[in-house]
Write a structure and sequence with these properties.
heterodimer; A: alpha/beta; 11-stranded mixed beta sheet; 7-stranded parallel beta sheet; 15% strand; B: alpha/beta; 9-stranded mixed beta sheet; 9 strands; 46% helix; elongated
Amino acid sequence: VRVTEIPDRCYWICSTPRTGSQFLCEILKTTGLLGTPEEYFQRDHCSLLFERFGAFDYETYLNKVLGQTSTPNGVFGAKVMGGPYLEDFFRQLRALPSQMGSQGSNPEFAAELFPGLRYIWLTRRDKLRQAISLSKALQTGVWQSHVGSKESLCSPVFSWEAVNQLMGRLALDETTWQEYFTSAGVEPLSLVYEDLIRSPESTVRRILEYLDISIPSDWSLDGSRSRSQRLADDESERWVEAFRRQTRTPPVPEATASQGPTAQLGYEHLLILQGWRPQQPIAIGKHLVRLKRSAQDGVVRLTERLLMRVTRPGKAWPSPHISVIFLSPSLKPQKAWREWLDAQTLDSTQGLLWCRKESLACDLADEDYRSAEGFGELRGLIKGRYVCFMSPYLLTREASYLETNLAALETEELDFTCSESPPSYLSGGQRLPGAASHFQGLIMNVDALSDELTLNRSDILGKVTAPPDSPDASGWETHEPFRITGDYMLFGKRARPKRVRDLKTQMAFSAKPDDRPTVLVCLPFLAVGGAEQLAANVIGELSATVRFVVLATDRRPPGLGDGRPMFRHHTPLVYTPADAVHDRLLPDFINYLIDRYEPQCLYIANGSSRIYDRLPSLRSEYPKMRIVNQVYDDRAGWINRYNTKWAHFIDAHIGANQKICQAYTERGAPSNSVHLVHHGVDCAKFAPSHFPEACCRELKERFELPTDRKIISFLSRLHPQKRPFDFVELARQMQHDPSVFFFMAAEGPLGEALEKTLTQLRLTNLRLRPFHRPNTELLAVSDIVVLPSEHEGMPLVVLESQAMGRSVIATDVGNTAEILSNTGGGRVLSAIGQVGSMRMEVQSLLLDPPDPVMVRKAARSHYDIKKIAKDYLSVLLPSSSAVDR
Amino acid sequence: VVLSVILPCCNRADSVGTVLRALDQQTLDQPFEVVAIDDASTDGSLEILRGFHPESYSLKLLEQKERQGPAVARNRGIKASAGDLLLFIGDDIAPAPSMLEEHLRMHGRHPQPEVSILGKVIWPDDLTRNTLMNHICGLGSQQFSYMGLQDGQECGPRHFYTANISTKSSLLKTSGELFDETFPHPAFEDFEVAYRLHKRGMKVLYHASALGRHYHYHNIYSFAQRQLKVGQMRVHLVNLHPELAKFHALFDLKWLQYYPLAARLQMRIRPGQDMHPTADWLEATVLHMASSYEWRPHVLLDDFFGRVLRYFLDKGSLEALYSEGSGLRNEVLDTHTIYSLTRTLRRFFHLAKGSDLGPSPVSPGSVEERIDGVWAPLPWFVSRALESWNTHWPRFPEGLP
């Protein structure tokens, strides 16, 4: 420990970024005569520096820095940046308890604290190259290059606006120094970067002379002791060319100096405000939005805390993030594989073709074949942090597979993710090193793999992400030697699930550009229900003019069917993060997708508390985004959460019938924000012409239904709301009627109780089977569809039946009565739960069936999805040009 | 003919065939007849009755062109019957093979003319049966209260269930006490005649071996409708026999005209505010909740179902007490709904909270919030006073001796 004493000669190296100040500091250190100059007063590194000097407050810190870093000859040096950093430095100095209430200008103040203070002003002649260098450093996070240090983790991207802006900014910072020197009435020692680089020794001599330090006669600069290297390369020259080419007038820094509202912001913020998306993710999100907004308003009041959070750098990505390896017998990649990879929502992927037979491999981007006999050799080609071996199984996975799995891998620091093996793919699965079983869709950290494709660590942590057809990963006990804890697969004694890290600092991408307006559709899960069906239909109808991003915010409960394929059929941008990422991050996924796709509208197609709890913050973070909500029932469910405060967060409320619309207004929604939009049915798909008689007969045989009886069907969920037992009782009451047969194609929470009852009743006129897609086939075999529900909004099954020309018997709930009076295709039951009257209506419909052609025609003119989708569009994007198209 | 079965029928095409067939499989070796009276059925019941040809008994079919109710139908049947004994059953009661024989045997053992024999009614195994149905014939006893009866005991006229009861025909015919034909719905008309007969000395003996199977599916919606009708008929009964009022807690109901005032005191209802939307929502919510538990056996549900059904019963009575068009009617009905259903729901949430009863699909959180919005929290001394008022208010025994 050095003796703490106050130096008698101090100097500041006054500079702006990228002027070689770091290089200068390092060579000054080597002299042993000029202190150990460093950037001691940079606010962003405050906490680190405090720690280093063991200080808890600024006063102690200042004393310790002055005492401990000066050379025995009593010289202290520090590097001080201009612009906002300088102002910040003085703010901190003035806040010192010992300096409370002291008057005087900044220079006087500084002279008091730093004895014998002198200034060395370092600038750079070529402002363009300085800005380019700064732009690159901001993007790559590499501020200085040392001998043997790591290379940049991502390649910077040139932007004229960014470089231009930074030039202005640098010029502005230089003026702050000029003003400072004028007010101090001093003449600093002016040094120029270009001279410094050319002859460091003479520069140091000038400094020694300036500070009146006698130079030993045998002194010379030991250049080899500086580890700094120049960062400028050919690329910088290309940027210079590009900038000059794109600038119509020659660059004059003074002319572009930004005097506007951004004057108080740091360099990083300038990039962000330019709409720049640095590849090194800067923690963005609500702070940035607040920043953006206040900058637009012309008022920037940034607290230090906020700035710290805005500028907190995220982790630098190795780019690309996932390398997908195509194991191919020939030197040509399979077309389907390439297509799958190209369709992935994750942009930063690398496709690698590896032909083991020929011991050759190549990156698909350059098709430059290199020898790769084993994985060790292939490793040289892998740019990603994770590898994934392409398999037929992966072809069955969705376009967001790599992205959601990457989110899990990154936020939970996993070594791998994988899916359960569905039996049909069992043989083709990827084998996890050391494990007895095969896995599907394995994505593995390269660092965890040895050159022999075995695990090279003793502790491995992985996660089971949901397979395509089962919502929960069960049956994992058998996968020795891995331990299974919940979703996690652990190998090794010390492997433990890690703390979950923030999504936004781990994942930051920009979306592929798209000229369509974007709508983010939120649902709790993608099951096979009315709400999902309707949303999928609307998406399908509008996807030519609108880009839809679909997000399921929760885990899909079992027994509700899988609606994901229905959505993926219409848009690749379907995210079911609950399959992979940690539950804690699910709410953040909404923000992540909004930041990524910048939707004009958030459409809550079906409610969930995850979404609704976020409404207030979404409203304040994205004030320009339109929020549209829809509920499906005027009595039960989410409508009960509505109140005046809540309705305030939502721009438009969609109701399928008058009762729902009324319920909205009763609960505080302004009436001009409530929109009556009927549900629609795809009449082209639900057409009886697709099912000629022979086809119906075949279907009936497939469903084990008699071909000579009228089929009466129940096609709703087995849920108390749908009252399936009333239908069972109807079948029981009509069991002696030889002309009818009852058919239930349904699943749901009451399934178990229903099966038990059916076993007990031993009905011979009822067939129960799981729900079936396409449900057109179910309707094709039905003659009458019964809907005994206790409450409904606008049941789709009624519309679909009518489009198919099938009769309907429904309780008078939602707007079933309105639909059936428009189409004339069925009967309405006035009371719920009255099986006797249901039986009588069935008998009367059998005697007097409505004309199916007329029913279909009426359904088509009122409820065709083409017509309804337009209504949706005008609510979702009222001011968009897509409405006109 | 030793026995006539009186079988009124109305729109039960699903069960009446089963009943007729069950009657054809009796172990009774003496001749008996079935007098079926069709009360203007429209669902094909009449065709079933007409087309049925029994092997072991004679079937007399009487037809009513207009709906007149079961009382009229039974009276016509009584007049047309030839048996010494009359057995009343319903159009959904399928007698067990020995049922008729058991009735006859018991009458042989008790030849006194004033003795009637009550048989047992159970749910058949081949009927869709839910928790509510177990409740109404079990702890709830809204339909049948066999639960409190012991085989062979004498029971009061309250248990004169025309689903399965036999009397000497002389008792009815000589006394001239027939069913009161002013009852439009099938409720309390059986009790009413039994009450008159009871005053003349009739005794009802319970014989559990005379077993009938009841083919009548119920759910909360259908039974709530039934309770409304029973409630209305209860008022009709009390109008006929004012001395019965105290047994039916109608004394309490009369106080309901002060409900609106009480509501202003206890509920957050402003003067002139329309209570109907709240009442409407509460009733629908309670029905949704009860319906969602229909298939879940749980010990807590008896309390809940009981209170819900009691509410509908009282509502029916209030509907009859305050005739259409009376100014107070809507206000009294809505007050009743809000007053009793908020209490019912609160009690249920309170009980359900610590239990293993799963959550109802009707999100209880929001329902509770809304109920709290309806009820003002009372100062403790007021609620204490109300509680004691409720506890010590004169109550009368539920049943007749």
